[in-house]
Specification:
The protein is of the alpha/beta class. It folds into 2 domains: 239 residues, Aspartate Aminotransferase, domain 2 (3-Layer(aba) Sandwich), CATH 3.40.640.10; 89 residues, Aspartate Aminotransferase, domain 1. The chain contains 15 helices and 13 strands. A 7-stranded mixed sheet has the order 1-9-8-7-6-2-3, with helices on both faces. A hairpin with a 6-residue loop joins strand 12 and strand 13. Helix 1 packs antiparallel against helix 12. It is globular and about 60 Å long. The chain starts with 13 loop residues before the first helix and ends with a helix. The model has no long low-confidence stretch (mean pLDDT 97).
């Protein structure tokens, strides 16, 4: 039956799987000294239209926590929404790798930082002097945890405000490809040109086996990050197999092709559900996620028929449907027909 639980549960994209097999030939230097890992900087720099520093890791949590832990001191504070993966899904990892940094929740709308609330928080910081943790990082997620998107202009406004207070801008890009494909802008426009300092670049949710990367747009922020990654246990001895995935992912725009299809699948699903009696789509569908409230009878009926999806905390009957690059329209159509019968 159709699995809409998570894009994490989807298969490896065939070309990425082939790249792992191709890398499995003979011997290669270990701990990132291999030829494939050596190609990453040039390839990522070309994608982002400037020289970058790139460090492959295996999980998105590692990318987020190691990056934020590197740019935030123990006495610092990391600002994010209440939905943020770094706040609710990473078991305190950013605080752990920073040595004790605080997490500060900012109000949000449609999953995005409320700029006015963020400005109030940072403008009014400092009344208690050294008693308060220092604002050091603002983390935004693109696409957001509820499937919406920051526009380039929204990112620029937030980054300008954060930089005025000496803060670093981090972007959790677990679904970065979905955002680029949906907005139709360049990766550069959505990151460093809009003020982003460090990016957690995701591939695993979009067809890779286990491949993420921390991308720094300023060398000073990347200084000694290699030691941070080593200390965090993400300097793999056989790094070539991670790097091979990232290279295949970016080659000939594969990453955007996969993401575009996943986004399209979400729109097929939204279009099929939005007019059903009792169904309410509660967030804009701008990436590959659909959040909808369904009648309890429909929920139970779909689950009984073997369809897979996650109930979500919040409103009554709220469900998250997450679309993988591998979904086909006929599968979505069959799911919608089942929901329509239950409606």
């Amino acid at each position: 039956m159709l699995n809409l639980c998570s894009d994490n549960e989807g298969p490896i994209a065939p070309k990425i799987l082939e790249s792992i097999v191709d890398a499995n030939s003979g011997f290669a230097h270990s701990y990132g000294e291999d030829k494939l890992t050596g190609q990453l900087k040039e390839v990522f720099s070309e994608v982002f239209e400037r020289e970058v520093e790139v460090f492959p890791v295996v999980t998105g949590t590692a990318a987020n926590a190691l990056a934020l832990g590197h740019v935030t001191p123990p006495y610092g504070a990391i600002y994010c929404t209440g939905h943020a993966h770094i706040l609710v899904d990473e078991c305190g990892a950013p605080g752990f790798f920073s040595g004790g940094a605080s997490m500060v929740k900012v109000k949000s709308s449609q999953g995005k930082i409320d700029g006015s609330d963020f400005q109030d928080l940072v403008d009014n910081w400092g009344a208690h002097g050294d008693h308060e943790p220092k604002p050091c990082a603002l983390s935004i997620t693109q696409t957001t945890e509820v499937g919406t998107l920051y526009s380039v202009e929204e990112i620029l406004k937030l980054s300008e405000l954060a930089h005025q207070h000496g803060m670093v801008i981090h972007m959790d890009g677990a679904r970065f490809a979905n955002a680029v494909a949906s907005l139709g802008c360049s990766p550069a426009d959505m990151t460093w040109r809009a003020g982003v300092d460090v990016l957690s670049f995701g591939a695993t949710k979009n067809g890779a086996l286990a491949a993420e990367a921390v991308v720094f747009f300023k060398k000073e922020h990347a200084k000694e990050f290699g030691r941070q990654r080593m200390r965090g246990g993400h300097l793999l001895s056989k790094m070539r197999f991670v790097s091979a995935q990232l290279l295949a992912y970016l080659e000939e725009g594969l990453w955007l092709k996969l993401a575009s299809h996943a986004n399209l699948a979400a729109k097929w699903l939204r279009d099929g559900l939005v007019d059903l009696r009792g169904v309410k789509v509660i967030y804009k569908v701008e990436g590959n996620a659909v959040f909808a409230c369904l009648p309890e009878r429909m929920l139970k009926g779909l689950l009984a028929e073997g369809y897979l999806f996650h109930r979500w905390p919040g409103e009554q009957g709220l469900v998250r449907f997450m679309c993988s690059y591998s979904l086909q329209k006929k599968e979505i159509d069959e799911f919608v027909r089942a929901a329509r019968l239950l409606a």
